[in-house]
Amino acid sequence: MQAMFGAGCFWGVEKSFRRLAITDATVGYSGGRTLNPTYEQVCSKRTGHVEVVLIEFDENLISYKSLLEKFFNCHNPTHNHSQATDINDQYKSVIFTYDDEQENIAQDYKDQLDASARFERPIGTLIAPAEKFWRAEDYHQQYFDKK
């Protein structure tokens, strides 16, 4: 199965998800209009793409809901277009869903979290159908493991 999340700079998001029992995590871009975008193009604010992490997972090992828990805990979902000092549409808080079941689970989880008043502000995370995933350049993959 696949899941795709945007939660700020993809380096830290990827590292967070790699701590889970997933099959793989790949950083890249999605949600924009430029074909096969480069990092420089995405940073230009003209492609419409978001930095995302594509998660491969086995439902027998980890649930989609567990992935959502990690997603909502690895960034501030009330900041829709920024995370910490990263301010740009490429850092949107977004859940890209692959089917109706993922969409329903994500929406229910978001609604419950919003109703819990865990956050002082409303959750701004977007939930949208998955679009084409464009793999980021090799130097972005598992970036923190290379440092």
CATH superfamily (homologous) name: Peptide methionine sulphoxide reductase MsrA
Under CATH, the topology can be stated as Peptide Methionine Sulfoxide Reductase, Chain A
CATH class category label: Alpha Beta
* Global mean pLDDT: 93
Helix content: 25-40%
List SSEs in N-to-C order. Answer: EHEHEHEEEHEE
Q: How would you classify the helix and strand content by structural class?
A: alpha+beta
Quickly count the domains.
1
The gyration radius over C-alpha positions equals 14 Å
- Report the strand count: 8
Biggest sheet: strand arrangement = 7-6-1-3-2-8
Distance between the termini: 30 Å
Going by CATH, the architecture would be 2-Layer Sandwich
- Helical stretch tally: 4
Describe this structure in words.
With 147 residues, this protein is α+β, with helices and mostly antiparallel strands. The chain has one domain: Peptide Methionine Sulfoxide Reductase, Chain A (2-Layer Sandwich). Helix content is 27%, strand content 24%. The protein has four helices and eight strands. The protein is globular and about 40 Å long. The model has no long low-confidence stretch (mean pLDDT 93).
